[in-house]
Amino acid sequence: MTEKEASRGAKSRANGATDAVVIKKYANRRLYNTSTSSYVTLDFLSDMVKNGEDFVVYDAKSGDDITHSVLTQIIFEEESKGQSLLPIQFLRQLIQFYGDSLQRFVPSYLEMSMNAFSQNQDDLRHRMRGALESTPGYSMFEDGVRKNMELYNQAMKMFSPMTNLYGAAQTGPSPTDRGEDPGEINELKSQLAAMREKIDELEKKGG
User: Has residue 179 got a pLDDT over 50?
Assistant: First the structure.
């Protein structure tokens, strides 16, 4: 490891990334895992993220920290697989903030919003399990979906150029005013019913 990498590594440790795996990226775009002395792929790094494993990526030649660009590349690869997570309107609004006077507030707000969503996902999973185990669980599932839609809509309002950054987080509008689409709830119901049918089929085959 170069002196520059060591300096950056010390900075990462100071920020709490004590167990971060060091990945080196070479000019041929190959990624080298220094902890296992083996080459890895973007899919491997994606799995590390999903498993909660921390890593940092350095340019093998310059020693620059390129973790941000590699994570962005992972997102691009995941989006190109057909299971898009980022709505088109969100991407358009995000692009509008590049070069905007509010650009420096965007990263911290996105991080705050995703942290809030992550904290709420355990409750959503619990409600989904209840819905799968018992048919009358639709109402609980809808409540969980509605809570997450409220959070998402608040985030979208914050990114709307026509909305004040500090006043957009006000609560209290009706579901219609929040822009919730009953069709989305119905679609989720249909997907849930299909999941239930598949589970029943698997249980019959297993029996």
Answer: yes
C-beta of residue 188 within 8 angstroms of C-beta of residue 145: yes
Q: Is 59 helix (H, G, I), strand (E, B) or coil?
A: strand
Range of the domain at 28: 3-79
Residue 15 CB contacts under 8 Å (≥ 6 apart), including other chains: none
Looking at the structure, tell me whether residues 127 and 181 fall in a common domain.
yes
Of 20-34, 67-81, 96-110, 187-201, the one with minimum mean pLDDT is 187-201
Are 108 and 50 part of one and the same domain?
no
pLDDT digits over 70-85, tens only?
999 999 998 988 778 8
Please tell me whether residues 118 and 189 are part of one structural domain: yes
The pTM assigned to this predicted structure is: 0.53
Number of independent structural domains in the chain: 2
CA distance 35 to 170: 47
The two three-digit tokens of residue 59, written as one number: 């340019």
**H, E, C per residue of 80-110:** CCCCCCCCHHHHHHHHHCCCCCCHHHHHHHH
| Beta-strand relationship, 21-25 and 55-59 | parallel
Q: How far apart are CA 132 and CA 142, in angstroms?
A: 13
